[in-house]
């Protein structure tokens, strides 16, 4: 039975020239609805996966971003408009602040894609990232079917680009004070680096052509794609390797080296492909290893530590040996402390080593947490979990942040936090959190200059400003919690089924053993009496603790596929993680189905 696509309704539209779109306006075209939220790294990955499809099928395909927010800040219409420009979204976007469309289309996770055929019927739904090849095959099938039926109409789409902007910087990401007193800044939306003078008001030099790319070479020839964090190498290491600065070239999934003497750029780690494999504790050749959205870098423990936001982990990079490897995390997106190989993170986005070198501080953005590493253990200073956030000062175990992206460890042992979605700079000191400044436009980094002053990257205001930390205030801006409807489950034995359907033209790839993997854990851990751990079967028997009334099941599933009937078959890996809120209720269902990829309605 075919299902009619629900009508598109929301608070407003972006990238349409002020026009409200209706499904009737799109009849005859194939439509992909991309349910996203601009905080989510997986959603940003999907934006990049969709770009080639937008270009190839421009005369038959309309992509519409449906922005269904997680954080309170993301409900702000101006913040959404800024994000659409920041991430180069070149298609119409529907503002869905109350998640009405999310519910109408039965979305369960960020991101979710829904495909509507030229006659207005939903023909596919899929969660997570990694669907570009499956979408391409599905689009080819739909084009052939509807061209034969006469129901496909080719032509220009409804996208209307916003007017060009003219500011010194455009959505700068991170800053790095240089030994000569200048400041290097990642000018992220312009895909380049800029060297600012000491008063932060003029660009002395630029590194990068300004267009998306991954070319090495001199400052005019080199190119980046939304670069973010940077760190200086120790002088003796820089002399050995031939470059001084390591740059997290985020959307290219690369680390780049910059030599300060002539601003030449070279690729030092990554292949340019996004990581979609399994993790191990081995060292790997840096240039042959895939990375995933490196967001920040810091020199710590004799290596460059990389905040690998795309996999919710930290990696290390040894510039002398030219190797990389896993430093901390398991890829599970949640908050758990302990030994580095067992911890959980959620999109780590800011790093800062303490001046004495003992601690590495990190901003764990999706858990709205400030955390630190010392002596092989990770600890949480501020943060409650994936769904709790706010602007609350006071004792650190009760304080709340909202999606922080930057952190700066100071010589007195305190830590400054770029509390991005609260528009504030916060300070942690001796177990207490206070607000140093507020009213800022998405501060994304905080760094200490050589003269002791603090530089704040005010990203959405397109500038850097100096902040002299003084007396801190106490703010109680309220507590927020993401309230996603929990899934009722029966106490005791429950069956978890992850339903996977290969994309058209693909089959499970058994060339290297079991093609599927399922990892299950819970928060609190006591929720699961049995069934935690890793198996290769996508169906698992769980035993839920009747004494724990509610919690979150953390489920990570992946499946390897390859092209059918091809002499040199391409390989693909589909991966999705879920944080499923559950409530334990007698007489509730004893089965939890999750769709890893659903290519039917």
UniProtKB/TrEMBL annotation:
<dbReference type="Pfam" id="PF01436">
    <property type="entry name" value="NHL"/>
</dbReference>
<dbReference type="Pfam" id="PF13905">
    <property type="entry name" value="Thioredoxin_8"/>
</dbReference>
<protein>
    <submittedName>
        <fullName>NHL domain-containing thioredoxin family protein</fullName>
    </submittedName>
</protein>
<dbReference type="InterPro" id="IPR001258">
    <property type="entry name" value="NHL_repeat"/>
</dbReference>
<dbReference type="InterPro" id="IPR036249">
    <property type="entry name" value="Thioredoxin-like_sf"/>
</dbReference>
<dbReference type="InterPro" id="IPR013766">
    <property type="entry name" value="Thioredoxin_domain"/>
</dbReference>
<feature type="domain" description="Thioredoxin">
    <location>
        <begin position="1"/>
        <end position="144"/>
    </location>
</feature>
<keyword id="KW-0677">Repeat</keyword>
<dbReference type="InterPro" id="IPR011042">
    <property type="entry name" value="6-blade_b-propeller_TolB-like"/>
</dbReference>
<dbReference type="InterPro" id="IPR045302">
    <property type="entry name" value="NHL2_NHL_rpt_dom"/>
</dbReference>
<dbReference type="InterPro" id="IPR012336">
    <property type="entry name" value="Thioredoxin-like_fold"/>
</dbReference>
